[in-house]
Amino acid sequence: MQIAIAAVVALSMLLALALLRRTMAREAAPSRADAEGAAAAILPSTPSASDALVHGGRVLGCFPIAAQIASECVRPDGPSVLWTTLFGVSAFVAYLVAGELGLRTLLRRSLGRELVRGNIAAATVAGASFVATGWVTGHAFAGYDARGLGLSVGFFVLALVTLHLGVIIFRAVTVYDDASQIESGNVAAALSYAGLNLAMAILVAFALQGDFESWGASLFGYARALAFALLVWPVRQLLVGGLLLGRMPRFRGGPIDEAVAGDRNVGVAALEAASYIGAALLAVHAA
Questions:
Q1: How far apart are CA 117 and CA 121, in angstroms?
Q2: What domain range includes position 29?
Q3: Domain count, the chain
Q4: SS3 for 37?
Q5: How many helices (H) and strands (E) does the chain have?
Q6: Mean pLDDT, all residues of the chain
């Protein structure tokens, strides 16, 4: 039963996403003409690589939401189409709004111009941001009544703020400007940023698990679970920078910054991103 509901929810979200994408493409044509000339108004028959990366992130972010709706938003004594639909629509709208806002706030600058220009680095960050937002959204919405919907929205907002603040705080250990590097097309910086964003989403989603008892108990459990985010610093500075790269660890900056910002080394950035995600998965499964 759950797999059937999840399939219906996922298909509905993907159809809605396709309609929105087509509408946005039509509206984007005049603005592209103004920004890049008349030739840019003719949209290509196939999407660019950057556009495909962003849309791929949007699509992937829908699946954890569909799975959560099917498993946590259906009455145990029988499905309630009205409430399941309401939770599904609310989660989908929250996901899209939060995803778009995330693109405009995570790097403190608008990525719109860079995405139009086909900046792969910007598209990598945007796609990963949607996946992270979808993962968090998929763990925030649970219930099958008005009280459950209210709690879901409250925890969704809390989780979203935590996700963005966590990324901003931990990026403080770098000495380079993420936004400038990504706007200049540095794919290595984009991979590093995307890996941290996804790792934080895994940890925030883990913190959202559990039944609601009271705000005090739930927030205490949320904060305790988020303590695993402290692993990000030793993973970056000690494991990757010290052990794997064989350099002297530093509290801030160091060999990773030199490789990512200076050399634009995609291999080091991929190793850093994989270490973030791996540490987050290890933490949540070992807890």
A1: 11
A2: 2-286
A3: 1
A4: coil
A5: 12, 0
A6: 83
